[in-house]
Amino acid sequence: MRSFITINTMIMCLIQLSLETSMWTTFDNIIVFGDSYSDNGNVYALTNESYPQSPPNYKGRFSNGKVWIEYLSMKYQANLIDKAFIYATSDNDLVPGHIQWDNSNYSVPGMKQQIDFFINSYPNQNYDKTLFVMWYFGNDYRYTNNGINPSAVVSSLINSASQLVNNFKPKIILFSTIPLLPNSTNNSTFTNHNKVLKNLLDSFSAEHPDVEVLLYPFDEVLLKFRESAALKEKLNITNVFNNCTSNKDASNVCENPENYMFWDEGHLTTKIYEYIANDVYNRLICLI
Ligand SMILES: *[C@@H]1O[C@H](CO)[C@@H](O)[C@H](O)[C@H]1NC(C)=O
Ligand SMILES: *[C@@H]1O[C@H](CO)[C@@H](O)[C@H](O)[C@H]1NC(C)=O
Ligand SMILES: *[C@@H]1O[C@H](CO)[C@@H](O)[C@H](O)[C@H]1NC(C)=O
Ligand SMILES: *[C@@H]1O[C@H](CO)[C@@H](O)[C@H](O)[C@H]1NC(C)=O
Ligand SMILES: *[C@@H]1O[C@H](CO)[C@@H](O)[C@H](O)[C@H]1NC(C)=O
Ligand SMILES: *[C@@H]1O[C@H](CO)[C@@H](O)[C@H](O)[C@H]1NC(C)=O
Ligand SMILES: *[C@@H]1O[C@H](CO)[C@@H](O)[C@H](O)[C@H]1NC(C)=O
């Protein structure tokens, strides 16, 4: 399993890249399984366009604009197949994901269910030029108030990845670590999750040498915003701790969302999503 390379090697790589082409410079399809960080309107459709309240949210995203995976597909000019659902867990059989809204209780497919459904509904075609993404943000821990073992959650994610491998022979699967929310300090649940994820992905990768297994250090990238004044200045972000609106009640919205890192208590502003997409893109093309 490869963790993405550091910024310094990336600059070297970008210089070298102008001379050669990489197998990672094009994808025809990007297929994403995940939660609110990647949902581009699936829950919005499920709730008859009533949740999340839009505006101020952007067309059913938990943000003020597109989410990161949409920017990434635009960069690649790839077809986006978005199977992510707001509030999704790793697996509904482990922790059931649901949304209580407007007197209804909507069940949302967990990542395992998203993948099972995809396997049953999509033809077994050639997925050589397809980027598979499993982008998980930790909802099992939120539902259970940290009452679930990271090994159980990560094992479930890896089992789903095995299903992808058995059914589609993907060339590349991209995972991410879980970052901290605005006001949290070092969070042992997430630290443990990320540690277990790294270990089990190493074994998974060794079992499947034909698959390029990548782990995006989302936690480190978001921490960089807390630490680097230069980065904040470059993106005109002055606020990395306060939320611009609330996902419980979106009636108040701050005046300058473009200066905020977090749109609501747990989700990023679209500017940060675009930054993440560019960062993922730059690291991918550097793999050569
Ligand atoms: C969906 O929302 C529209 C507009 O608010 C409403 O007219 C329609 O009855 C709703 N459909 C369902 C199935 O609730
Ligand atoms: C909503 O459904 C989920 C399962 O999908 C269940 O765990 C939860 O208790 C339900 N909530 C209510 C209020 O019925
Ligand atoms: C760790 O994160 C979880 C999920 O967001 C949260 O419930 C918990 O309060 C956090 N713990 C600390 C110490 O910040
Ligand atoms: C959080 O704690 C873990 C273990 O206690 C440590 O390895 C890690 O470096 C810490 N991370 C940060 C950002 O402080
Ligand atoms: C940064 O944000 C402030 C407040 O929204 C705005 O007035 C200013 O023009 C922005 N600066 C740049 C360089 O975009
Ligand atoms: C930010 O989140 C807190 C906690 O949920 C909430 O009480 C507050 O109203 C939110 N701020 C804004 C501007 O919506
Ligand atoms: C973080 O803490 C600040 C200051 O206490 C508070 O105003 C803000 O709403 C908090 N942010 C979140 C997302 O809860």
TrEMBL record:
SUPFAM superfamilies: SGNH hydrolase. Residues 1-20 form the signal peptide. One of its GO terms (molecular function) is hydrolase activity, acting on ester bonds. The keyword Transcription regulation does not apply. Keywords: Signal. Belongs to the 'GDSL' lipolytic enzyme family. This is Gdsl family lipase. It comes from Gigaspora margarita.
